[in-house]
């Protein structure tokens, strides 16, 4: 019996690694697009979790600092395969772009890849994927006029004041409004979600997050180690950023260019390279670290910038299911989920739509890709290949 259980656990971990690696190789378009890819793969196709659980996990990760899409992926891995499932989900989704950017750090200095036709095609793929995810999530998360109104207000405010801290404020306000409106609302959450990590482990993870945040700057001041300085800069960047990868890019520019760690040309080349690879935008840290100190620097930078996200999601997940089922918290989550829909629609417009759809042919191609994904039920990896190929051909028209 124990042998059978071990075999099932091993197969589950291998499955998590394979699925997350495929997503890591095909998920282009930034954090909002990644949530669309995850929704399509984990909720629609594999049914590893239900719509409400996925929506609540997205809401939690939107509220936490760090890369929201990576945290969602880690959370799904933990729910599926425990602590090691979370690690494998993270490695599968992140390593492809880390390896690519460390290699490209040697070749892309001074090069501009941001205007390549195939990259433009991948941006249009992101339009189709995110539109598909928004349609599915809005149907489930904004079924009544009150939640549609919350989503609309979140959409308008996010578009008018495009600031990561405004986004956090919207989520907090939506939680308060949801609590006041829906505190007596009874809504089934289906089966209880089990997390194979203890609350004690969660407390330790949160304690380590705050300990490193406060101790690393002190250690940096009292030592002359460049490695500690590098680790501190990336750990702080990963700890204090709300709003995902698009927000961390300018923060990293302020951290490393004025201080002379790398020049502006190398930074801009890396920015273009990061847009060209799949996976989380936080892997831009791997490029910067590799430019500064080779592959070892890339590895240290990657660990440092993602470690806060890992500690935060491991620290909060053991308490998440209990909180979301609490009658006082349930209404707040309903408000937050509605606000997240509005925030996703705002992000769909800017930066995804504004950076992708600039001509009628772009819209026509996006409509074709959307139909392939939604109506013809073609897999996401195939849509990515068609998008890249079509984007290259469009430059010849």
TrEMBL record:
Its topology with respect to the membrane? Multi-pass membrane protein
Please provide the record's keywords in A-Z order: Cell membrane, Membrane, Transmembrane, Transmembrane helix
Q: Name one GO molecular function term.
A: chromate transmembrane transporter activity
Give the location in the cell. Answer: Cell membrane
Domain of life the protein comes from: Bacteria
What Gene Ontology cellular-component terms does the record carry? plasma membrane
Q: Does the keyword Cell membrane apply?
A: yes
Under the heading InterPro entries, the entry gives: Chr_Tranpt_l_chain, Chromate_transpt
Q: What is its main location?
A: membrane
Mark the transmembrane ranges. 83-105, 117-137, 149-182, 202-222, 272-292, 299-320, 332-350
The answer to whether the entry has keyword Mitochondrion is: no
NCBIfam families named in the record:
2A51 (TIGR00937)
Recorded family membership: Belongs to the chromate ion transporter (CHR) (TC 2.A.51) family.
The identity of this protein, by name, is Chromate transporter
Originating organism: Peribacillus castrilensis
Query: What are the leading ranks of the lineage?
Result: Bacteria, Bacillati, Bacillota, Bacilli, Bacillales
